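User: quick one, fold this
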Amino acid sequence: MLLHNAFGRKVPSTTNTTTTTKLASLQQLPWDHSHFLHRNTHSPISYKPRSSLIARCALTKQGQRFLTSIATVAAGDTSATSRMISKFIASSPKSVSLSTLSHLLSPNTNYPHLSSLALPLYTRITESSWFSWNSKLVADVVALLQKQGLLDEAESLTSGTVSRICLKERDLLSFYCNLIDSHTKHKSELGFFKTWECLKKIISGSSSDYVKKRAYKSLVGGFCQMGLPHEAESVINEMRQQGIKPSVFELRSIVEAYGVLGMFDEMLNGVVELESSGFLLDTVCSNMVLSSYGLHGKLSQMVLWMQKAKGLGTGFSIRTYNSVLNSCPTIVSMLQDFKSCPTSIEELIDILRGDEALLVQELIGSAVLAEIIEWNSLESKLDLHGMHLVAAYLIMLQWMEELLQRFTSGQYKIPAKFTVVCGLGKHSSLRDKPPLKSLVKELMLRTRSPLRIDRKNIGCFVAKGKAVKEWLC
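Assistant:
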């Protein structure tokens, strides 16, 4: 089967080439990829590395009111828009102004139809007394202008920035590295390769190892995010020719990029390359492999990989739970209705079949739950922050079994209070009824648990220690 990478190049899902042959072919890749700028491309694969998913910038209520009102009141009226922007900046704190701009600059903005306001909003912000220039913000604005086809405006802002910092090599490097990152988020190949040419000049003209290492790191990460791991490997070859040893970041990026494209032989070769370069197979890299298999529905390979990682002593983490369980269709389907999902591990395993059951068993056999439970004479706390809904669900089932085992073993002193922290749902798209809190509440009700929402902190469920023991024992 053939896949299209981010620029339409057809690549096989797996190959039988050896690592030696692959590296030999990579050495033949040209350093100059400017030909990409002048050809038509197919629809790209949506590439979002699991280790670096783009977070949507939090929009304040004040910023939300401003964007809503400007869309209705000043629609199509340039003068009215300018007045509303000036009034908003004058009456808003620095944090509100910047978060609103950042939201418009984000590829995941809730207001894509208002993205044209980013430049006038940025311009007005730069005139404020509190404004302090930073290359990251400028890079985000340039990348958005490039995406919108406002090439003259993008070039003007870029030129002005370069003129401002031209005598400071590291500042110029920081700007171009930020620009690479911004262009990759928008999947802008034109902007990416133009910036790549600028970084090449910095690399060739610098005598600083720090400058070269950071520039190479940005290029490898950028190529991988654009779905071009072959090109990223050619950059790594260039690094080695320059006497610069690739870091674990570059090598992990290669592993993840191949995995996302479904090129699993190359992904595993990347793991071998990472280990031969002196880096251990750690939890981060292991999770990248699991996430890649899960993305393509390869559950049996996930089972084998988890068993291999366990044999090597590589630990699991909450991110492992997230990646693995999000790939289990039966469990994901169960959580469409909190009122009917199983309320015990035994009941869950009985329902699951095949690889899904094996994956759950591998997870519950790990030490993750024991590592996140806090336990002392005053309080036992379980914090669900960072967990996706499916992960929190399994952790809750494990937690109830773990408490029963600790109570019956007689080796643990009963804490005065038990707390389950699920948060207020600030980062949920469903503000009024956050799914995680609703899940915990339903599980507690269905199992007749004494834990109830804390009056002092509505993001927590609490109960006295003796009541929890009576509930489970």
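User: anything notable?
Assistant: The first strand starts at residue 2 and ends at 4.
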